[in-house]
Amino acid sequence: MKSIVIIDDENVVVEAIGAMVRRAGLDYQIIGTATDGVDGLRVVMDTRPDVVITDIRMPGIDGLSLIERTIEELPMSVFIVISGYREFEYAQKALKLGVMDFIEKPIDTQSVVTALIRAEEVLDLRRKVHRVRHVDAVRQQERTDAQNGAVGEVLRYIHANYAQDLGLDELSKLVDMTPAYLSDLFKRNTGTSYVKYLTAVRMNNACRMLLQGERASTVAEKVGYRDYNYFCKVFKKNVGVTPSEYRDGKT
User: Fold this and answer.
1) Cβ-Cβ contacts under 8 Å for 211 (sequence gap 6 or more)
2) Domains located in the chain, CATH noted
3) 172 phi/psi in degrees, rounded to 5
4) 152 confidence band (pLDDT: 50, 70, 90)
5) C-alpha span between 42 and 245 (Å, rounded)
6) What pTM did the predictor assign?
7) How many other CB atoms sit within 10 Å of the CB of residue 41?
8) In what order do the strands lie in the sheet with 101-104?
9) 3-class state of residue 80 by DSSP
10) pLDDT of 33-92, one tens digit each?
């Protein structure tokens, strides 16, 4: 059952609309009423109804101002305006605010019923769209979590096995992805390529071993370089000095 708040500065109008809703047997429940804009604003914010039926001209806060203050807070709600004023400026502003329908005074049952049936259709559509978006958001978050988990697994594997001959093919099999997709995902998550990241890990460990006094040739093999000359070239490019100079403190 959908909920309604009715706001009009004439109590007889509020009671009449309520009676029309009940007699029509619509799937609606009136959960609040008010006879001025200030009280109406409080009732709407407290009850958060599915449908707000409000007069345009009321003391305190007019109907359009009330809608302006509540429509962002209640994006799923439907707003219906009742008024005996047909000036273009009111209709134009109401439409810009997202008012769904107008009920003209003097009010009759048919106009109220027609507006509420349409409101029910709009509410159902909005809820369906909201559910779809929610499901999509959940699925996207699950994909993101899975991707972050895959990158995390690859990073742990690199740090544990940096001395081995690690290739993107091997790592992609580890997380059940294509090499191209993993390469793109890795760069988006770390800000660098897989090759540069692996090289940085190797160089950091090489620096640590050299400071512990190990020979440069031994360090080269321990961090995954079988070609000592190539290791020296890569080390100097990344660190700025040769391995021997770094070990001896000549930086």
Assistant:
1) 246, 247
2) 2-131 (3.40.50.2300), 195-247 (1.10.10.60)
3) -65, -35
4) very high
5) 75
6) 0.66
7) 20
8) 28-34, 2-7, 51-55, 78-83, 101-104
9) strand
10) 999 999 999 999 999 999 999 988 888 888 889 998 998 899 999 999 887 755 556 666
